[in-house]
Amino acid sequence: xxxxxxAVRAEIEAARASGMLRGAxxxxxxxxxxxxxxxxxxxxxxxxxDPVPGAEVSVECNPTSTTPELLDGLLAAGVTRIxxxxxxxxxxxxxxxxxxxxxxxxxxxxxxxxxAGFSTFSVDLVYGAxxxxxxxxxxxxSTLLGLAVPPPHVSCYALTVEPGTALARDRARHPDDDVSAxxxxxxxxxxxxAGYEWYEISNFALDGHRCRHNMAYWDExxxxxxxxxxxxxxxxxxxxxxxxxxxxxSRVEGGASAVARTEELSxxxxxxxxxxxxxxxxxxxxxxxxxxxxxxxxxxxEDGRAVLNVAGRMLADEVALRLxxxxxxxx
Length: 331
Description:
The chain is 39% helix and 19% strand. The chain is of the alpha/beta class.
């Protein structure tokens, strides 16, 4: 574990020495379960980054590893935001997702997070598992909203099938598109009634609790990623690290760059990507950038902009094909 932490810190220091890292206004430790390495290791990483005053610093946590001791250590290290991977509050749904912790672990972790003193916290839910019913998903949401301190931010992600996984090999467990659409409608209705606003297709927040780090992605801002398989975007350049941890360690420890792939975006490609990302958010896109004819039922027109309504959010990729400037071969 510490060998990997040291390699990530070395990559951070190399970026600082090159002038690429000049202070971070937001930091996100995720892409797995960073809470498993403990507060000391995460504090060492954050010490290498040295976020600017007032930065948002998020850490993804797993319910079973989220203890009051861990939270105290993260708070002392400068963490301001916790994202808890609850996934579901149904034992049978968790089991179908390969999670063996009981729902009570999530509730205990949420109680500890609420008492710890972070600026905000978020919960991740996953919907669409074959073992899940509408009632199961509604129960998970209702339970969260009924807590003494409900999470100010909720992310609801549709279960997706990734090639090469156990889920991909078991077709009986594959999510159904119509079922997933129904679940998304449940999330939008319950969270909306409770005062949460959607600001990106999968993300809902109370006022003042949007994730600043993720907003940088959707606003096509610059960001640096460190570690195995991390992605970065600076100006018109996008680049990503090797995905194999052994190769990552050997490269960094040998003083070489961990970058495995680089892409330069043309001006037109960047403009189109910016529109695609903005379409996923409550900001929408300028009306003139979208061919609205025939999809009026999927968008709302607000102050000269086209914004996806709840039905449009379920078909966002289809709506994106109507954006002007898309290369013809993508139609």
